[in-house]
Amino acid sequence: MTERETVIDKLRLTYEGLFSVQDLYKLIDSYFEDRNYDKREIKNYETVKPEGKFIELEMEPWKKYTDYYRNIIHLRILMDNIKEVEIEKEGHKIRVNQGKVQIIFDGYIETDYEHKWESNAMFFFLRTLYNKYFYLPYTMRYTGSCKADIQALQNQIKDLLNVYRKR
Fold it and tell me: How many domains in the chain?
């Protein structure tokens, strides 16, 4: 059975103000593409309400380190009261969005996701020993890499949102 170890649990980023939904999507897509993640979109839901759009996006990009380890980042983006507004910057009118954004980050390390060590009880026992004693340095390295990737993504999103805050 695949074991999933939680590295980061429900790290939240909340923002309210001006931003571009399209720029946020592009940033997230390019971030995962640049770092060789495969992306799986779980949910993409949008509804229009009188006070603005509600958008919910949930994705689970993963990165394969070895045939035994893989890194999974679960990303949930909730946007509420999204309205399109027009602002003026340096004499040009620009269309941006205004509303609330909440992004929830979860990070996981999965081991034996190809189920190679489950064929019999002896392999399962050996896998437990290897995980506990021999593979611990590798697990720590991949755990640190997962944390670093989530922190870097969070910082890039913060930078993007702060750009719109300065207007």
Answer: 1
